[in-house]
Design a protein that fits this description.
The protein has 108 residues and is mainly beta. Helices cover 9% and strands 37% of the residues. It is globular, with a radius of gyration of 13 Å.
Length: 108
């Protein structure tokens, strides 16, 4: 799972997520240092009331795994909301500046 996850996430997310005003795709590392498996990942520009599709699709991110996330949805904003859904029924939301984001680590 670990070896195929980065390519899978990059391919799925490239079709679903943000391009900044300079027409540049934003890519960052996502690592799961929590004790739960990440089942779903949603993003949207701040102020958008819809999350859109699950960016992980059928892939899960188990504890200790990581991969690359590509944000390329054509939006001209840097501020994004994120929703993470875990197998233990917990959810985490966060707001990040994807233009300055190099990596994101999920922790307990």
């Amino acid at each position: 799972m670990l070896s195929s996850f980065p390519a899978l996430v990059a391919g799925v997310l490239a079709a679903c997520v943000a391009s900044v005003a300079v027409a540049q795709d934003v890519e960052y590392s996502l690592s799961n240092a929590s004790s739960a498996t990440l089942l779903e990942l949603y993003t949207s520009p701040v102020g958008n009331e819809s999350w859109g599709e699950d960016l992980l699709a059928d892939a899960d991110l188990a504890p200790g795994e990581g991969g690359s996330v590509m944000i390329a949805d054509g939006e001209e904003t840097c501020e994004y909301d994120m929703l993470f859904v875990f197998d233990d029924e917990t959810e985490l939301t966060d707001t990040v500046d994807i233009c300055d984001l190099a990596s994101y680590e999920l922790t307990d």
